[in-house]
Amino acid sequence: MTLTGSIQDAQSEIAERMNRLPLTRTHRRVVLVVGVALFFDMFEIFMSGVLGTVMREEYHLSRTEVSAVIASVFVGMFIGVLAMGRLADRLGRRRALMVSVAVYTVFSALGGLSQGMAMLVATRLLAGLGIGPVLPLADAYLSDLLPARLRGRWTAVAYTIAFLGVPAVGLTARWLVPLSPLGVDGWRWLFLTGAVGGCGVLMARRLFIESPRWLESAGRTAEADAILARLEREAGQAAPTAAPAASARIPEPAGAPEPGGGGHVEAGHGGTGHGDPEAGRARPSLGAVHRRRVTMMTIFHLLQAFGGYGFGTMAPLVLSAKGYSVVNSLLFSAVSFAGYPLGSLFSVPLIERVERKYLIVGSSLAMASFGLLFGYASDNTAIVLAGVAYTAVSNVFSNAYHVYQVEIFPTTHRVAAVSWTYSLSRIATAAMPFVLVPLLSRYGPNALFAVVAATLVAIAVDIGVLGPRSNGSTLEDLNERLAPVRRPG
User: Cys-Cys with 78: which of 173, 273, 353, 427 at CB 3.0–4.6 Å?
Assistant: First the structure.
């Protein structure tokens, strides 16, 4: 058998065992904890729009200073996604996710202690280093771990938990901003809330397991087999009598750690005990098919920052521009943000029934329509209804693309490819307030949402023309068998 063939057989062995599994207790536990981690990540991301509105009133900021407050976290996210994307395929999904949560927890707490605008902008930028990687890491982790037939549905469940964080930040801001609990400005408590949530996620780190797919791709087949055997015991399935082919080349070390607990199943330590686990192994490289997918997702992420985050970040400023007070604009925003978890919940039955490619196309066009309605709306009821409709549809869009973007790349390059393309959305989002805030000030909400709508139509064309179908396909059918293998040396 050729080297390429033996690697593909080993991958098939691991993948087939994972895809045969029903949803186990461990799967449910991981989805819940990842959902909570994403909840506080969303809380941090959508805090930016609230901060821009509050800081402008409290410190009488100029338009450029408001843009800097909003943009700082997204610049940090861009840098963080790029840096962690290069490391996560080597460190492992679990460790990379925990490092990212720890970084944003520390700097969010420091942000709450900021003395002056310079420190606030600096701490938001540094918090962004951790905030940015969490979403693509969570996407890759869940995609790796969940069986193919359940991948979309249960990732959508995690994001439904996550997007409760969006109305949570709006309602928390509406409650705290007018107050000074314990003599501390209300907006500072927003930072501390996010930091406490991050600490909770770190305390639950022992509930995470490492991805068997990633372990196998890193040459740590014995550890992958041990985790799979544990999942199979939970499911009442018998493990194969023979170990995967690759384990004959990479034997299990004496005293191998029990999988699933603490930091025992992590990357970066050469878990096989035989030096570099990559030595002597052929690795898939990105061929023409995957390079075309990288191009497609590059276009997508450059544009979706304006459509996906443009509304959530700009809505409080738009309402303020319509003449509403800060308190009322925060209240309307919070009510509109209720559409985020509602849309995410609505996506759960859709995401496996409707081809994800077409779900992204349809929801992006619907977002364009509801965004224009929000921009043109002049009475309270119309504003709230258009806002809820926009945010609800945007989370069908969001959940579909979060599943889609990770399943169309091979395991060995999944986080790196997604992080590179996703990082562009962060830098585009950082640039967004410098484009949209002046546009709003000079031409009003109608022009702002016309630009947002145009980007959403372009997204629909991009995915509709270039995107592959993915529903129900295994990750290996979508990727590994399409990837050329590069021999070592």
Answer: 427
Distances (CA, A) of 178 to 106, 141, 320, 338: 26, 40, 16, 21
pLDDT band at 12 (very low <50, low <70, confident <90, very high): low
Instruction: Tell which phi-psi region holds residue 354, choosing left (phi > 0), alpha (psi between -120 and 50) or beta.
Output: beta
Question: What confidence score (pLDDT) does residue 29 get?
Answer: 92
Q: Which residue from 167, 201, 188 is spatially nearest to 120, judged by alpha carbons? A: 188
Total Cβ atoms within 10 A of residue 182:
6
The CATH number of the domain holding residue 415 is 1.20.1250.20
The β-bridge partners of 284 are 485
Residue 252 domain-assigned?
A: no
Q: How confident is the model over 67-87, as pLDDT tens digits?
A: 777 788 888 888 998 888 778
Q: Residue 455 is part of which domain span?
A: 11-209+287-481
- Backbone torsions φ then ψ of 274, nearest 5 degrees: -125, 45
Comparing CA positions, the residue from 487, 419, 443 lying closest to residue 93 is 419
In the predicted model, is pLDDT for residue 171 greater than 90? no
Query: What is the three-class DSSP state of 288?
Result: helix
List the single range of 134-138, 404-408, 449-453, 464-468 with lowest mean pLDDT.
Answer: 449-453
In the chain, the number of structural domains is: 1
Cβ neighbour number for residue 335 with a 10 Å cutoff: 20
Burial of 387-398, coded b for 16+ CB within 10 Å and e otherwise, reads bbbbbbbbbbbb
Question: What tokens does 194 get?
Answer: 């996010």
Report the SS3 class of residue 459: helix
**Tokens matching residue 346:** 């609505």
Crossing angle, helix 445-466 and helix 414-443, to 10 degrees? Answer: 150
> Contact at 8 Å (CB) between 80 and 133?
yes
Cβ neighbours around 91 below 10 Å, total: 20
Distance CA 374, CA 355 (A): 28
